[in-house]
Amino acid sequence: MPDFQHLTLEYLATAVILLDEELRITYLNPAAEHMFDASGKNLLGHPVQQVFTHTEQLASAMQQAVHNNASYIEHDLTLGTHAHGKLHLRCAATPLQFSKQYLLLEFHPMDRPLKLAREEQMLDQTQANRLLLRNLAHEIKNPLGGIRGAAQLLEQELEKPALREYTQVIVQEADRLRALMEKLLSPQNASHYSALNIHEVLERVRSVVLAEMPGGLTIQRDFDVSLPALVGDKEQLIQVMLNIVRNATQAMQGAGLIVLRTRVARQVTLVKRRHRLAVMVQIIDNGPGIPAELRDKIFYPLVSGRAGGHGLGLTLAQDFVSQHHGTIEFDSEPGRTCFTVLLPLP
């Protein structure tokens, strides 16, 4: 393909991929590299159907364009990527004839209106969840004082020192639960924000979970070490990532693979605000996936997919992410679940 054509495509905001007669990638413009979070140098020469997953609709669009020797547009195309899972796109496939036959693929994201609607719904849901948690914490806090006082009175009546160890356990656990309730009842401005490295957060989570699950669990790192510092509450972000990873390990019954991936996201809209840069954290597991009947309410409090689960882990995670003006989403199917947390960079 002539060099001036490549130069023209470099400046397009539309994601463009050029294929040769054997449907191998011969060119990606910067917009395509950004959309698919991939380097053109790594993809050149590879068949397009090996680079992506869930390519059935794409293959059909390419076949139609080649067969009719005319542009073919697929208005609602699902295409799988290794970085983002499934993307919903509008795709135009156009045959081109220069010294040899080419196929030009143009991709337009269809997720933006859906994403804005989901964010609006998530904001409303987070506010409702926060109110419910505060009410729940208030109701739990009062009887805890009575339990603690009764345990102290009982301790004074016990003659054997060994029995007092049990009352001490009651007092200590009551104090721990009371501290947790105080944290839930505290205003958002009680958070402690400072510059932090997101990889330190993930390393802490990794060490904690591996200590809890000593056998059968593998946690791989896929870090972008060039990420700049994030401003946030370190303990809250540790709790966010820990709750997601623990959910994954419980779904896999402690045996499987979890990947902790970090990337920089550019020009993203989070909670109705446009940000030039954001940190993207993805927690990917190869477990059974989230049951279909739970996917629409997975962030609701008291909703759990396992017996004995309290259903507050993801609710708290969503609340803490919202306080950081970020978003949390997931994509799940049997064999792959990916939670994506986006946090704005200053």
Pick out its properties:
single chain; 346 residues; Beta-Lactamase; 5-stranded antiparallel beta sheet; 5-stranded mixed beta sheet; 12 strands
What does this structure look like?
This protein is α+β, with helices and mostly antiparallel strands and 346 residues long. Helices cover 44% and strands 28% of the residues. The protein is built from 10 helices and 12 strands. It has a 5-stranded antiparallel β-sheet. Strands 7-9-10-12-11 form a 5-stranded mixed β-sheet. The longest helix is centred in the middle third of the chain and has 47 residues, at 111-157. The protein is elongated. 26% of the residues are buried. The model has no long low-confidence stretch (mean pLDDT 81).
Low-confidence stretches: none
Query: What order do the SSEs take from the amino end to the carboxyl end, as H and E?
Result: HEEHHHHEEEHHEHEEHEEHEE
Main β-sheet, spatial strand arrangement = 2-1-5-4-3
Please identify the top-level CATH class of the largest domain: Alpha Beta
Helix content: 40-55%
CATH superfamily of the largest domain: Histidine kinase-like ATPase, C-terminal domain
Mean pLDDT across all amino acids:
81
- Secondary-structure-based class equals alpha+beta
What is the total domain count? 3
Number of strands: 12
CATH architecture of the largest domain: 2-Layer Sandwich
- C-alpha end-to-end distance: 41 Å
**Number of H- or I-type helical stretches:** 10
- Measured by DSSP, the beta-strand proportion falls in 25-35%
Global Rg? 25 Å
